[in-house]
Amino acid sequence: MNVENEVAPDSDAALVAGAEGASDSSVAAPEMPTPEQLGISVVSGPEGGMPAVTVGDTFEFPVTVSWSVQGSALLVVPTSSANAKGLTQVGVSQESARSVKDGAEIASITFTYKIVAEDTGSLNIPAMRFEIPTQVGRPIDLRSESVPVRVNEPFNPLPFVAGVVVAVCVLFAGLWRARRRSAARAAVAARSAAENALRERMMVLKQRVNVADSREWLLELEGAVKEFVFEKYGAAGVNSGASGAKSGTSGVNSGAEGAVLWESAAAVNLDALVKEGKLEGWEAIVEEFAHARYGGGKRDGFENRETWKAAMRLMGLEE
Q: Distance between CA 137 and CA 218 in Å, rounded?
């Protein structure tokens, strides 16, 4: 509350006048002047309004009583506390000051209350009461306005951190699934491309079955079969069985329970895989490849055609 009178009478003069009237006991006590008549004002709360506080915080709440000096001095006595629901006063200090406003000298006393916020919600700092003693024995009462204050819960970072962690996990899971799907699509595309290339190679062999040298034709078919086995099992190969195997061109024996590690289709040993039972159904065709490698006799075109058909069936290819 800020109540001021533009023309402030001399407070001492008013008080003295009251005292003179009271000297005659037969005369009724004069009416006490109001704070507005004496030019006294009360302003509560910080400039700019009361900011929100956090429960458990200790904050300061100023109340300023000011008046026009005009050669007088006043004694201002606080008669109430700032205790209220959810608010506890833990201390109070005061400070006097003088200033000049519009050519008039203004005196003031600022009472700064230290208050602890013990509850949350929209609370109210109570109106502060003050008394100014006078010579007539009856004090002048002053009263400030009640001021609302918002008390918030303390900030808890745990939900925020948990939300960030969940969001990051979801993001990484999405990226991982996207990469996995992309890798799966790439693998399917690679297998499809390899299958198409193998099919084209087999179709060329079919066209040459009657005109090419049977031995050379069979060796070319063997190369196509090796390419199929290499693409089917990949660079990791298959278990070598009891005989052991070599790792591509590295020459490292993998042992009885090792694995064939091929670096190229040329490194595939079809004979060993058939003996180990890894290429079921390929026995007759692989035997024909062996005869061709070691100078087997000439074969008719229809025999090679039947071999071609069997290889197409075993590789799961269609014309």
A: 132
